[in-house]
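are you around this afternoon, could really use another pair of eyes. what follows is a protein written twice so to speak, once as letters and once as structure tokens for the fold. i want to understand how the tokens follow from the sequence so walk me through it. anything you notice is useful, everything is just below.
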Amino acid sequence: MDVSLTRNFCIIAHVDHGKTTLSDRLLEFTNTVQQRVMTDQHLDSMDLEKERGITIKSHPVTMSYPAKDGRTYKLNLMDTPGHVDFSYEVSRSLAACEGAVLLIDAAQGVEAQTVANAHLAFSQNLKVIPVINKIDLPSANLELCLKQLEDILTIPAEEAILASGKSGIGIQDILEAVIARVPPPRWADYAQTRTLVFDSLYDSYRGVIAYCRVFSGSIKAGDIMQLMSTGQRSEVKEVGIFTPKMQKSANLGAGDVGYIVSNIKDTADIKTGDTITLARQPASEMLPGYKEVRPMVFCGLYPLESSDYEKLKAALGRLRLNDSAFVYASESSVALGFGFRCGFLGLLHMEIIQERIRREHDVEIISTYPSVVYQIVKHDGSIIEVDNPINLPDPGTFTEIREPTIKASIHLPNDCMGDILSLIMEKRGTCEHTDTLDANRVMLSCVLPLNEILVDFNDRLKSITHGYGSMDYELGEYRASDLVKMEILINSDPVDAFASIVHREKAEGKGRELCEKLADIIPPQMFKVAIQAAIGGKIIARDNVREMRKDVTAKCYGGDISRKRKLLDKQKEGKKKMKQIGRVSIPPDAFIQVLKN
């Protein structure tokens, strides 16, 4: 097919604005998927995606559409995630497209990720087609959506298409707009073959399968391909397109989106963002790749059974290939044994990876408390980065600790503003300015420490705003703060799994909470065991594990009280002696329960 008849576009939107449902209608309208095999959320291939109602991975599909002008066009569509933790997936899909359909929920209006994803598309110079979705809802407010489109996103309201993914309204208008407004594939006239790898997965039978977009030239089975970042060569075994299942084809030409199966068997050899060219006539310059993504949240992952270590290592390797925003390195812990230090883009990303390890690779794991990357400024001015509290150097060796901050845009109803400002202050954040979006909604621009928003910030934002609040954020600068390393001592021995870096003002409250939780969870011991939270040599909180008591006075009936006292004193001496030589045995499920909470 002529390159001028190909269009590459993706669908971008805020979470739950109807991207996947609209994709289903496009597949039905173009007869790409037969009605008898069609399912809801058809492009969401993971059970996890269907259960949670969110898209985690972007999914390519090739459609054929006979347009009103009498010509048949090849449309390559990519459905993308909407959650801020998966914005890297969105940026990769955008790099492989020339246009983007921007969905806006007619009832919700423009939200935080709508703005963020629109700016991502503008920065890649893509043609953005605005679509007001869910217009058949009783609560739809078209006038407000069109006004927000112009005021917030600076897109003319007359460009908007009115549609409903659920009832199929406006589907043909969207397809015609893609053909009319999205330009044909760019850089197609480059002399050599250049193919961009935007995703990949591991197949136990065929090895590494690269998802790619061909920008120029063509590639077919039997060719010797070359990875431009490493120079590695490999024979192409199969090429094909997605319909949305993998369908083998003779070759992939300029503008096509498809997959390449090669001789590469190692997951570490092929990188997302790499350029594939042909070894016989290699290209001289790579395609503009993706920015190197940096993980923002770290935690330790350990197998529940130590025999599963190699299985966990293999699982992480395959997930790393399928998700280039995820990183890992081996580490060990006295309490938990051998495991891995893993980096994620956010808390939802962390949760999804852990769930995928359990489901797809059948490995039961335990994770340590999430932490972020801190910068330690030493006396000589040198800076080291620490992502694990155990590696924090002695306080006498550095002058300050800097923590990462985020720049957050929070969209919320007017009447919740006071409560949200209190939440921001509680999390040590500052509100820099507010913008009134319309009569009912405002947007706050805030700076918050990343460490403070990890665990419960998003949940509390949703609770306070009754589900109407939304947040988008990007990494800001590092700022100096009064941070300390808090350790948990059990019978005077530090337990590395519970070490954390906290703000000095919040250390006592957090320490007391953790000590109380551990005292409840650890089973009674033969002698009284102290659980203490300490900063350096200073104890800031304490609780005790219950001790087992044998009723040694049961055999005394009547007589003088001194007989009972004598027996109790003898028991006390025995407990004291046991404490000197005794060690506390903490069952593994105690760690699991505390770390889960």
The chain has five domains: 3-181, 194-278, 297-367, 384-481, 485-596. Residues 561-581 form the longest helix (21 residues). The mean pLDDT is 84.
